[in-house]
């Protein structure tokens, strides 16, 4: 890679935040309460994607019997039961200040509702590393492309000088739509074999020291 970037755009869930196990537990609780077969780790990573409503179809929710709105509310309420089980991914607390010290500006682009995102950054005491954290206006975890376009119009940074780091195919799709380079982290919500079809992949954030020249 070795390109000198001016901006790093991070995904949150599954990338900086290690919440894969929490996401899987939440999904399986929801499925089990509805008498639908739960999914294992491999299946989840092989099929998880955006928009989330399509993922819900794939895992077996009956969208004719239940609204996406109600499922979204159930997800938020169930996820909150496991909130104490989530933590930052290894080396995040080392890599964020290292990037900042090199003069690169850091942003977050997330499908998470924006007020919740800001609260989590505050709780983990990492909000000062970011120029801005841009989340969703609602709880439906839809495409991040539109939110990314608004982010670019507000903060006026150059797409060609920007690297997006995420953990799903959707992050690669968003990066392509916004004109960013992309790097994908194998420790999140998608299987590595899927990620490698879209972009370069890292196993841990220590690899960024060499890739970004830190």
Number of strands: 8
Per CATH, the superfamily of the largest domain is: HAD superfamily/HAD-like
Q: What portion of residues is helical? A: 40-55%
The span between the termini is: 13 Å
* Mean pLDDT metric: 94
Major β-sheet strand ordering: 5-4-1-6-7-8
CATH architecture designation of the largest domain: 3-Layer(aba) Sandwich
Percent of residues in β-strands: 15-25%
Detailed description of the structure:
With 214 residues, this protein is of the alpha/beta class. It folds into 2 domains: 7-19 and 86-211, HAD superfamily/HAD-like (Rossmann fold, 3-Layer(aba) Sandwich), CATH 3.40.50; 20-85. The protein is 43% helix and 16% strand. The protein has 10 helices and 8 strands. The strands form 2 sheets. It has a 6-stranded parallel sheet with strand order 5-4-1-6-7-8, sandwiched between helices. The protein is globular. It starts with 6 loop residues before the first strand and ends with a helix. The mean pLDDT is 94.
